[in-house]
Design brief:
Number of helices: 23
Number of strands: 2
Distance between the termini: 97 Å
Helix content: 55-70%
Number of domains: 3
Order of helices and strands: HHEEHHHHHHHHHHHHHHHHHHHHH
Length: 625
Amino acid sequence: MVELVWLIPALPLIGFVLLLVTGNLLGEPRAGWIATIAAGASFLVTLTVFVGLLGQDSHGGERSYELVLFEWLPAGSLQVEAGFLVDPLSVTMALFVTGVGALIHLYSIGYMHGDPKYSKFFLYLNLFLFSMLMLVLGNNLVVTFLGWEGVGACSYFLISFWHHRESAATAGKKAFVTNRVGDWGFMVATFAIWSALGTVTYTEIAKSPAMAATTGTAVSLLLLVAAAGKSAQLPLSVWLPDAMEGPTPVSAMVHAATMVTSGVYLLVRMNNVLTDDALIVIAVVGAATALFAALCAVAQHDIKKVLAYSTISQLGYMFLAIGSGAYVAAIFHVITHSFFKALLFLGSGSVIHGMGDEQDMRKMGALRLAMPITAATFIVGWLAIAGVPPFAGFWSKDEILLAAWEQKNIGPLLWFVGLITALLTAYYMSRQVFLVFFGDQRWDEEAHPHESSWTMTTPLCILAGAAIIGGAINLPLVKDWLVLEHFLEPVFNHPHQFSSGTTTKVVLAVISVCAGLAGISIAILSWLTRRIPTDRLEPEFLENAMHVDSTYARVVAGIGTTGFQAAADIDKQIVDGAVNGVGKLTMRMAQFIRPAQSGYIRNYAIGVAVGALAIVVLLTWGLLL
């Protein structure tokens, strides 16, 4: 059954081609259903491959299968194949990418109703899913990079989908340009790995001897640059908040199931080349990003922008886990986050849809009565991301905090930053829920908020169920319940082992829960009972994301533009001048030679005669001497 892996990306690709050829003829809703069926079929095939993989012996890393389609880039000693790798990590990623992706497709059928570019939206969505699946299923870095660029291009198409709005067009360009920095890191890291190890295939890289310390650290940091670009970590996080300019299903697709998880996947996949020094840097970047984005989220008024900064913060948790060597914890949080963040984004889309495209939370309130299904499922997502047990987010977040605590040297500091971030997360998500669904009605009677159609509420209910029970895939209570950890163990050369005793684990978990409850309590006192004044809880400094984005804009428009112009002038005057100078010198030399190449035979005959006479004269002169 694992040999069916090629069908997983092929089905969304077929859906893309069908919509490319017949999309306008099919129209609404047929185009949406074709795209959704393609995504759902891909999920079913992924389940089949997963079952087939389970049937293989897990001892000694036997749960690994490569399917090579053809030799792609034969260039001397560089031999790159177009192939797929089926192992626990790739299948785990493919399962939630296709599962959550199919639900987002179904949701979009109702959400995009009436849009003039209805079929084009689903065409892009299928292409997005295909690209992400190529990224996670590729058997080497070059195939992964193909998918990496694919999701980057699709994010541009989808974020700027409503490009008649200047803000959407600008957001698409920002995402595209910012991610090019990460692409640079990916490409240079790939070149360095091939130069050092002579291969770019994952299975061969895993078997290769360790690179020299300096080379390994350099490669690791380049991979961090790549991951920071795609997963919106500092200092490359500025594109993700603006990505909300696309239709809400795009936000769910980008922020939860696909693109932003690419960086986490890349680092986890390359775990065997990451050095200890680089891991410390990754952990610090993750912790700093988590805290920064959480602080920004507390003062946002746009319902989707709160969730956007929340995504950046949660991705910071995943980087903190990777930097702590807890790769399973990172993937565990990727999975649970895909459940509750897709739920929250789709829930916000349901609110926006029901409120006539209103996104300002200050103009909402008491919507639980008008939108009971949306409210109930959104509350589940809130409890999950706030880390309230037994919801899924508690288990994965708690595992990351424990891994950070066990870090050498700066472990307690990283844990404390993660704990403060957890408190802030519980606060700003509670604030969002109270502003949107509780409190006083702040919308006009003309708004007529209403519950969404079944194609939108069904995915919400399914994702809410996953957000409740998703933590069951890796419960730390009993060793036999660590299903995800045991499944992923063959992928890692050195699986992380928690060294803390049971008492320490329980105490840290209790502290974590108390931090979450403290955040919720502060939000209740602030936004429900109004016992705490709220005017100082939304400082402009945080609302403007600490002016990081605006500072980038000033630098690029000022010093950056001056520097770019100086570089262009150097290119024009020196580089182009040298090239043009060689050309002009050649032309001038040609002017001297041109008379000798007149094309007249008589001139050539005279030249031959003169040359012969000169030879005779020289020979005679030599004999006389």
